[in-house]
Amino acid sequence: MRFRHPDGSTVHLAYCTNVHPAETLDGVLAQLRDHCEPVRRRLGRDRLGIGLWLARDAAHALVTDPSALRGLRTELEHRGLEVVTLNGFPYEGFGAEEVKYRVYQPDWADPERLAHTTDLARVLAQLLPDDVTEGSISTLPLAWRTAYDQERATAAHTALTTLAERLDALHELTGRSLRIGLEPEPGCTVETTRDALASLTAIGHDRIGICVDTCHLATSFEDPHTALDALAQARVPIVKSQLSAALHAEHPHLPEVRAALAAFDEPRFLHQTRTLTAAGLRGTDDLGEALAGDALPDASPWRAHFHVPLHAAPAAPLTSTLPVLRAALARLVGGPHPLTHHLEVETYTWQALPPELRPRARAQLVDGIAAELTLARDLLTDLGLKELP
């Protein structure tokens, strides 16, 4: 979906396909047929943006077989879909029964991460629509915090500098300008906007910026205006923003609140949990750990890294951080000029919701994704953007 900003520029809205993960190119093509095109039809639009997630094997197949890449582009056009952004965070296995810490491997100190992201860039340069010259790729924020020493930090920064040089060369070759966004996430080396500023200043290249995920921003109790103002003042490019909402518990000391939270403690994904105390931010790596005894202070609200559907906040006594998303979006695209032109709804946890909230059929998932995009569209038009055909 495309929108015209009052300054005349185009803002792209997509949804991320990691909600229906596939490891192979055939699986990606099936996604387009079974999910993405039905979402577009459900919205009644001639064109729908998707934030494509390509696992290692799918990306490698595309970059080594020009005919396969041409075939994917043709399939996208045939189904009324367009790609201006890729999700390069998960490397493989995102649909496994247990993902947890595996999603952070390989990290930016490992050569495989550079090779994979280079493949993604080469693919995206060929998938961009003819009238679009700028693309974005989100990636993990360097590494998970443990086992990340100075030697690995140096290796990660060197890899990102190498990537930036490759993107410069790709721009010269194709005319397509691509940027990478580190995506701050709780528990990672780059967890907050402040962490991102320190790392990106050290890297110092305008092709390496930040991907602002509003669920992660909220989970870390960051004020969106303060965070985004700091990025703007530092001239750090906001490559893209993922529109997502975290799980919020206002009174985590109450037994009924604990019971409601326990329903979201599931085995597939890591749900880092945070609370803001007088002494600063406190947290656990997972929701179950927070719920076990007194691992996390419960005198103040808790937020958990669980991407809940944008249009459907959890039932009381829980809620979501949709207000943080609204505030961030107003700052991102509500001003005289957009801070980013790439927006991506990213709720990958539909099948990790408590059983009674999960979609039971493909059509229900299509309806849910369409409802999220409708909410995002309404937020954008309320900010003065005009939806384009």
Describe this structure in words.
The protein is of the alpha/beta class and 389 residues long. Helix content is 40%, strand content 20%. It has twelve helices and 15 strands. The chain has helices at residues 25-43, 56-64, 66-78, 111-127, 150-174, 193-203, 214-219, 224-233, 255-262, 287-291, 322-333, 362-382, and strands spanning 2-4, 10-16, 48-53, 81-87, 134-139, 177-182, 208-213, 238-243, 245-249, 273-277, 280-284, 302-308, 318-320, 342-345, 386-387. Strands 2-3-4-5-6-7-8-14 form an eight-stranded parallel barrel, surrounded by seven helices. The longest helix is centred in the middle third of the chain and has 25 residues, at 150-174.
Topology order in helix (H) and strand (E) letters: EEHEHHEHEHEHEHHEEHEEHEEHEHE
Q: What is the residue-averaged pLDDT?
A: 97
User: Strand order across the biggest sheet?
Assistant: 2-3-4-5-6-7-8-14
The tally of helices reads: 12
Return residue spans where pLDDT drops below 50 for at least 5 consecutive residues: none
Shape from CA axes?
globular
- Secondary-structure class: alpha/beta
| Distance separating the two termini | 8 Å
Q: In angstroms, what is the radius of gyration?
A: 20 Å
> In oligomeric terms, what are we looking at?
single chain
Largest sheet: 8 strands, parallel, barrel
Strand elements, count:
15
Q: Report helical residue fraction.
A: 40-55%
Strand content: 15-25%
Write a concise synopsis of the structure shown:
The chain has 389 residues and is of the alpha/beta class. Helices cover 40% and strands 20% of the residues.
